[in-house]
Amino acid sequence: MKIQSARSSTTSPDKGIVSSTKDLHSFLEELEARNPAALLRIRTPMDTRYDITALQRKLDQVRRYPVIFVEKPITYEGKQSQFPLVTNLTASRELCAAILGMDPRQVAQQYYERMTRRLQPVVVDRSEAPCKEVIQTDKINLWELPVTIHTEMDPGPYIGTSFVTTIDPETGIDNMALQRIWVKSPARTGFWPAMGGHNWMNLQKWWARGKDMPVAIWIGHHPAGLAGAQARLGYPESHYPAMGGVMGEPVRLVATELFGDQIMVPADAEIVIEGYVPVGVIEAEGPFGEYPGYIGPQRPSPVIEVKCVTRRKQAVYHDVGVGLADHLMMMGNFPLEARIYDLTKRAIPEVLNVYVPLSGRRNHVYVQIQKTRPGIGRDVILSALTADTRLKHIFVVDEDIDIFNEEQVLWAVAYRSQWDKDIVVIRDMATFPLDPSISAPGYTGAKGGIDCTMPPPLGPGLPRPFQQTNHPPAEVEKRIRLEDFVTPGQLSKFPGQI
Amino acid sequence: MTVHVEKLGLPRDVFVTCPQCKKIYYIERLFYDPSYDHVKLHCPFCHHEFDKRDSPQVWGA
User: Fold this and answer.
1) Per-residue pLDDT at B5
2) What is the pLDDT of residues A284-322, one digit of tens each?
3) Nearest residue on chain B to A297, judged by CA atoms?
4) What 3 state SS string does chain A have?
C-alpha cells in the first residue's frame, strides 16, 4: 500500500491562505522517500493481540527503532482491519529530533524555544477537514480499528495514542493529554485521568455540576504535532498554540460533531472519537502495563460512552509501544526536558543542559551545570522537582560530564558525591501513582537528588579545589590517532565489554 | 490485623483471585474505599465481573 498525503489549504480571515503541510500521511510519505531504511513494512497479516508490541520489544532490546508500518493488522475480533497501523513513530531520539529539526543533544533548549513561539490555530470548515471524510453516529464499532493489546494482563485492546480533549467548564478553555483508553466494547471505553492531571481537574468540575463531561479523542497527526500537543503547560491553557509552535505551522482545527466549536480537534487528525464521560459512573479499569515498565493495578475509573466517530477515508491507525522508547521519548521526555530546563534555568542561570534518560522512565533527570558558586547543585534539585509530579531523582553534574552517557553520570555519582552531604531527600511530595515502590494510598512519596558536582573555583581564574581527571597531555592526545594503528575491520573484532 | 510489607509498609495493591478462572491479579486498594464498594472487579484473563467479596483468596487487604 502506498502512503498518500491528503494535503489541503484553506483561507483564514486573519491569516490569509494557510496551507497544511504536516500530517501523518505527509510524514510517512517523506520518510519513505528520504530515508527508506528507517521504515519497516510488514506486508503479511500481523496480530494486534501482543504480536506487534512483541516485535517492538525485540527491536528495543537491540536498540534499533525503525518506524513500523503494518499493512494488514488483525483486530481484536480476529478480522483483518481496513486500516493499516503505524507504530514506533516516536521511538528514536535521533529520528525524533530530526523530525523537529533539532539537535538530539539540545532538545531541552530548542523545544523550549519552539514551544514559547506560540502559533494561534486556524479554524477550517468541516469540508476542508480530512478527519471528517467519514462520519459515523450509528453502528459504531471501535474494535474495527487495529487497537493493540500490548502486555500480558492488559484486559483488552488499549489505544495508547489517544489525545483526550476536554474543556474547563468555568473558562471554556480546552485541554488535551495523551491518556490510555481501554476499548471495552464497540462503543464504550475505560478512561483513567490520573489525579492532578488537567483532564482530571476538568472532570471534577463537570461532575461537581452534575453534568456528563464532553470529550473528544483524536488519534494520528504529524509526529511534530504530537510532540507539541504534549507540551507541559499551566492550567487552564490550550495546547493548540504550543502544538503549532513546536510543529512550525498553525494547527488547523475543526469543530466536533457533538459539541460544535465548544471542543475543537485537529482537522488533519486520522481518527476522532466523540462522546461523554457519564457523571458518577465508575468501573474497573486495567490492569495495564504502563510506561514505568510495570503492570499497574486495576483501578476504579470513569468510562466514556462513544456517540460519534469521524475519520479519513484512508485513515492510518497510530499505535505506540507502551512502556517502550516509542512511548517515552518524544511524547514525554522531550516536553519534560524543556519544562525542567525552563524552570531550573530561570532560578539558576548556570544550568547548561537537561536530559530525561530512558533508563529512569521519567523518574530520573540529569542536569548539567556550570558550578560557579556553592549550593547551586542543591538549588537545581529543588527547582527541577517542581517541574512535574513524575520526577523523582535529580542528578546534578558538572559541565565536563556528558549527560547523555550514563557511565559518566554514574562516575560522577561515584566520585563527586558524599551521601551524608550531597543527597537531598524530601518526604511526602505529590507523586504520580504509577511507581510501585510508593506505599498506600499512593498520592505522595519521597523525592530528591544527588549533587554530583565538584566544588566551585576558589575565585575568578583560580582552579577548582578538586583532583584532576586522568588524561595525557593535550598535544599527545591530539597526535595519537586510533586510525593510524587500527583498521575499522580490526576494531570491530577486538574483544569488547558487555 | 494490619498488613505490613517490607519497604512498602501498607501496600497499595491487593491481590485477588477470580472466582471463575481462579487466576490471580492485583487491584488498587482504593476499591476498599466505601465510595467504591459497589464497583465490580473485572478479571483481565476471563473477563468475569465479580464482587471483591467473592474472591476465594485475597492477599494484602
Assistant:
1) 82
2) 999 999 999 999 999 999 999 999 999 999 999 999 999
3) B27
4) CCCCCCCEEEEECCCEEEEECCCHHHHHHHHHHHCHHHEEEECCCEECECHHHHHHHHHHHCCCCCEEEECCEECCCCCECCCCEEECCCCCHHHHHHHHCCCCCCHHHHHHHHHHCCCCCEECCHHHCHHHCEEECCCCCHHHCCCCECCCCCCCCEECCCEEEEECCCCCCEEEEECCEEEEECCEEEECCCCCCHHHHHHHHHHHCCCCEEEEEEECCCHHHHHHHCCCCCCCCCCHHHHHHHHCCCCEEEEECCCEEEEEEECCCCEEEEEEECCCCCEEECCEECCCCCEECEEEECEEEEEEEEECCCCCEECCCCCCHHHHHHHHHHHHHHHHHHHHHHHCCCEEEEECCHHHCCCEEEEEECCCCCCHHHHHHHHHHCCCCCCCEEEEECCCCCCCCHHHHHHHHHHCCCHHHHEEEEEEEECCCCCCCCCCCCCEEEEEEEECCCCCCCCCCCCCCCCCCCCCCHHHHHHCCHHHCCCHHHHHHCCCCC
Break chain B into its structural domains and give their ranges.
13-59
Report CB contact under 8 Å: B8, A155.
Answer: no
- Residues 410-449 of chain A with CB under 8 A from chain B are 433, 436-442
In chain A the domains, ranked by start, together with CATH numbers, are 8-320 (2.30.110.10), 348-451 (3.40.1670.10)
B41/A437 CB distance under 8 A: no
ipTM associated with this complex: 0.96
